[in-house]
């Protein structure tokens, strides 16, 4: 049924759904199931061209994110092959613009362990009046470095647990980690002398709107290899699951549950940012099941997309206007500055959490029972149309 097929170890419900979708097609097609996104493309320099070797109608299910260069290669294949019509069912929102590519949002990475999350013990909250917020990250990425610099520069990290690495490699590489995943930390500053230089070299943005607070925080940030209450490495993550981890519930229970128990607010540092298409992962799902108020550090439109799927972002107490800002640096700045009191005042934030606990419980129920069904139904409706 699939000409190309790479599976996740725990993807049976999504794989079965994809096969059902194909069984209902009334036209000839070539189909591919790509379980690891960019990591699969990195294994073979001819991977993109092979996807279109048969021409005609092509259907691609893609679990994970694809970098912009690969997206351009895919679109170029369609442009150069007039008989190709591509239906892309993938984890990024509207990654293509060509008229012969139909893009359908299918956030497989976010939905992968829906059953396991539902069966997980619920969080019992005992909110802290000292360290009341968290910002966690595993892979070092530009928007995470900028956000951490800003939080430190504003001296907010004395009220929260800011967990981030600032170097390319720490400790031994996990035995089951791909070369591509191991290279993911090439976005670390490695003591690059200024935030302006870092964002120019690693992010490709001018940095004209960098704040003095963020620059000051960056100078503090690069003095240590990592910050926060503990360090978390790729080897710890991949040890929980298969080739690239894929056991996010195991990660939640072993490494995150104690953080969620005592906190009321979280910056969710998603995988993508800048001008990338929206891409939502288990990082957001963890925060929902962890029952935290959420500020998203991701691409423009992330909050709106999740609200459209049914998530209550608590706009009554959180300013999410940053979600419509085009410039990635301004987006980071506004996300924090328009919500300063939430970061600065534990008693204020915890009171708002208590006042809105029912909404957070409804969000957890949404993630358990509604999100998967609604997302897959949306996909199916778009395919039928």
Order the strands across the largest sheet as they lie in space. 1-2-3-4-5
Order of secondary-structure elements: EHEHHEHEEHHEHEEHHHEHHEHEHHHHHH
SS element count, helices:
19
The rough form would be described as: globular
Oligomer: single chain
Q: What's the quick description here?
A:
With 385 residues, the protein is an alpha/beta fold. The protein has helices spanning 12-23, 38-41, 47-51, 68-80, 108-111, 114-119, 142-153, 179-182, 195-203, 212-221, 234-238, 248-262, 282-289, 302-308, 328-337, 340-344, 346-355, 357-369, 371-384; strands spanning 4-6, 30-34, 57-62, 85-90, 101-105, 133-136, 160-162, 164-165, 226-227, 265-269, 293-297.
Explained architecture:
By secondary structure, this protein is of the alpha/beta class. It folds into two domains: 4-106, no CATH class; 115-374, no CATH class. The protein is built from 19 helices and eleven strands. Strands 1-2-3-4-5 form a five-stranded parallel β-sheet, with helices on one face. The protein has a four-stranded parallel β-sheet with strand order 7-6-10-11, with helices on both faces. Helix 1 (12-23) links the parallel strand 1 and strand 2. Helix 7 (142-153) runs parallel beside helix 15 (328-337).
